[in-house]
Design brief:
- This protein has 180 residues and is mainly beta.
- Helices cover 8% and strands 52% of the residues.
- It is built from one helix and 14 strands.
- Strands 6-7-10-11-9-8 form a six-stranded antiparallel beta barrel.
- The longest helix has 15 residues.
- About 14% of the residues have low confidence.
Length: 180
């Protein structure tokens, strides 16, 4: 039996949505000099909420103040969930909290009914910011936006897409009503 993990299933769904949809509908976009800004997530993220991490393996390096989670890693904070095969947590020098996290080898980030995927993600808990790199694909309802990089500002629920941003727009004439 070929069993897909949750991140592979999500990636398959995201890919199908991207291929099936030819457009962006219902997403507020505006061009900026350095990229395209979009809303991301259903609301402001509670960055002070506890972080729950589940993985197949955990290796702690007390000298480096790090923890390495590997194998089907799931990171949950408030309404945000991150899936990746590899996540490294960096603690503050005094070990009073987490400084930042680095995920790699294919990352899926879900917040509300929106999702993003990319090769890597860096979550800076001091700046309340997540930066995703490497063929980033964002899906929002029927919308799909691709770029090289996405920077998410968790305090206000916005994201900036930069580096070869691509999206297709669907007009009302491109959609059929259910009763037609």
């Amino acid at each position: 039996m070929n069993r897909q993990g949750p991140e592979q299933l999500i990636k398959s769904i995201l890919f199908a949505l991207c291929v099936a949809s030819t457009a962006i509908a219902g997403t507020t976009l505006f061009a900026q000099e350095s990229g395209t800004s979009i809303a991301f997530g259903d609301r402001q993220q509670d960055t002070d909420a506890p972080i729950d991490v589940t993985s197949a393996q955990l290796a702690i390096d007390e000298n480096a103040n790090t923890a390495l989670f590997t194998g089907d890693v799931v990171v949950v904070q408030d309404t945000m969930t991150l899936y990746a095969p590899w996540v490294k947590v960096f603690y503050l020098e005094d070990q009073s909290g987490i400084s930042h996290m680095h995920a790699k080898d294919g990352v899926t980030l879900i917040q509300g009914d929106e999702a993003a995927e990319g090769e890597t993600a860096d979550y800076d808990l001091q700046k309340d910011q997540i930066v995703m790199n490497g063929d980033v694909l964002v899906t929002q309802k029927l919308s799909a936006i691709a770029a090289d990089k996405m920077t998410i500002e968790l305090e206000d629920g916005t994201a900036l897409m930069t580096g070869r941003v691509k999206t297709l727009l669907r007009t009302n004439s491109n959609t059929k009503k259910d009763d037609e």
